[in-house]
């Protein structure tokens, strides 16, 4: 959802909201369906995590660490996405390049 405004400025996009808007012709429906997809995937992850913990009780500590790390990674990615210029519609340069300083 973060890149929607920026992607709509260009003739190409791969944003799920834009794709669903094209399919349904209604922005509210597209946003709601996107939210529902994300919600179902989160519920699926939680169910898989519970099954893994039950199936492999001898690896519970390792699995719990991985599960919690994955949740933290996803949460961090969302927080990061909210604050970077990549998704800022006011940034005009969209050539796909970036600079990494080490």
The largest sheet, given as strand count, sense and whether it forms a barrel, is:
none
Number of helices: 4
Content of β-strand: under 5%
Mean pLDDT: 85
Number of domains: 1
Global shape:
flat
Flag low-confidence runs. Answer: none
Protein traits:
63% helix, single chain, mainly alpha, flat, 102 residues
Q: Can you describe this structure?
A:
The protein is an all-alpha fold and 102 residues long. The protein has one domain (4-87). Helices cover 63% and strands 0% of the residues. It has 4 helices and no strands. It has helices at residues 4-7, 16-24, 27-55, 60-81. Helix 2 (16-24) packs across helix 3 (27-55) and helix 3 (27-55) packs antiparallel against helix 4. The longest helix has 29 residues, at 27-55. The radius of gyration is 18 Å and the shape is flat. The mean pLDDT is 85.
Summarize, please.
The chain is an all-alpha fold. Helix content is 63%, strand content 0%.
How do the helices and strands line up, and which of them pair or pack?
Layout: H1 4-7, H2 16-24, H3 27-55, H4 60-81
């Amino acid at each position: 959802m973060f890149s929607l405004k920026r992607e709509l400025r260009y003739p190409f996009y791969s944003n799920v909201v834009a794709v669903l808007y094209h399919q349904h012709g209604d922005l509210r429906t597209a946003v709601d369906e996107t939210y529902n997809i994300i919600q179902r995937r989160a519920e699926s992850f939680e169910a898989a995590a519970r099954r893994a913990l039950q199936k492999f009780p001898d690896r519970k500590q390792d699995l719990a660490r991985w599960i919690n790390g994955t949740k933290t990674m996803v949460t961090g990615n969302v927080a990061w996405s909210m604050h970077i210029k990549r998704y800022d519609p006011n940034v005009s340069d969209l050539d796909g390049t970036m600079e990494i300083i080490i």
